[in-house]
Design brief:
The complex is a heterodimer of chains A (about 70) and B (about 190). Chain A has about 70 residues and is α+β, with helices and mostly antiparallel strands. Chain A has three helices and two strands, in the order ββααα. Chain A has one domain (about 5-70). Chain B is elongated and about 65 Å long. The structure holds fe (ii) ion (FE2). Fe (ii) ion binds near residues 64, 135, 138, 165 and 168 of chain B.
């Protein structure tokens, strides 16, 4: 399984006016890795699928803001 | 021809009166990578693409209108009872003098929608690569809106829309695989 996020460490100067963000992250959702979808992948139940936005468990990648993550201790 | 179902693809609930969020959401309404652009781009490309992937463009283009309707509902709910003062405080004063509280196809900066946002190159690979890029850009836009929003109910609907962009991108990538497939290595699922 792929990871849904990658990070990198951009250069920052001691003279940068804003507090540096030392680690930058970006999304790498599962569609980048799957290729042509193979048969018989695990599925959500119809009810779960309607909530998730996909029938296919390996393609489910919910995104939460840093604010939401902090609030729920994710 | 289309058949209309009088319900939203996914419920839209808004928990706070926050016209500022409407200003951000409008990017997905009338912005370059928004739902209107997506729907019109895909449905228009259908005529000059190999038969095998026309159905995909019809399906996704149609779904984009369902997304457009969800965004419209969000924007409407966030602004419908906002006073001129509240619109002004949300940075929507220029919108208000032109449109009152009506919705309009414009981006978050107030720039009206333009057909130059979309392309139909007539080359199937070029068009599908544009579609894949459009889906990834829409996915990113949803991330940035979620980052700007503290409305948990709204974010739930936005997460659904972002997930759909991932699926659309997946299907467009598969469409490229189908069109570039070499005849002798044909695979059916
Ligand atoms: Fe889409």
């Amino acid at each position: 399984m792929s990871t849904p996020e990658k990070s990198y460490y951009p250069y920052y100067s001691p003279y940068d006016p804003c507090k540096p963000i030392k680690v930058k992250t970006y999304s790498t959702p599962p569609n980048l890795y799957l290729g042509f979808q193979p048969p018989n992948l695990p599925q959500f139940s119809p009810k779960e699928a309607l909530r998730a936005g996909t029938l296919w468990k390996p393609l489910y990648d919910p995104y939460y803001s840093p604010y939401e993550k902090a609030k729920e201790g994710r | 021809m289309w058949v209309y179902e009088k319900k939203l693809q996914y419920p839209v609930r808004v928990s706070t009166c926050n016209p500022m969020l409407a200003k951000y959401l409008v990017e997905q309404y009338g912005g370059a990578d928004g739902e209107l652009s997506a729907a019109l781009r895909y449905l228009n490309q259908r005529y000059t693409i190999p038969d095998k992937v026309i159905g995909l463009l019809t399906d996704i283009g149609t779904e984009e209108f369902a997304h457009l309707e969800m965004i419209a509902t969000m924007v409407f709910k966030l602004t419908k009872d906002a006073t001129p003062e509240q619109m002004k405080a949300a940075g929507l004063d220029a919108h208000y003098v032109n449109h009152d509280n009506a919705l309009y196809y414009e981006n978050a900066g107030g720039v009206p929608w333009t057909a130059t946002y979309i392309q139909a190159k007539g080359d199937p690979i070029a068009d599908l690569y544009e579609d894949i890029a459009a889906e990834e850009k829409a996915r990113a836009t949803y991330q940035w809106i979620i980052n700007m929003s503290d409305d948990t109910d709204l974010n739930d609907s936005l997460r659904f829309l972002r997930e759909r962009e991932i699926i659309h991108s997946q299907r467009f990538r598969e469409a490229v695989e189908i069109l570039k497939g070499e005849k002798e290595k044909k695979k059916f699922f």
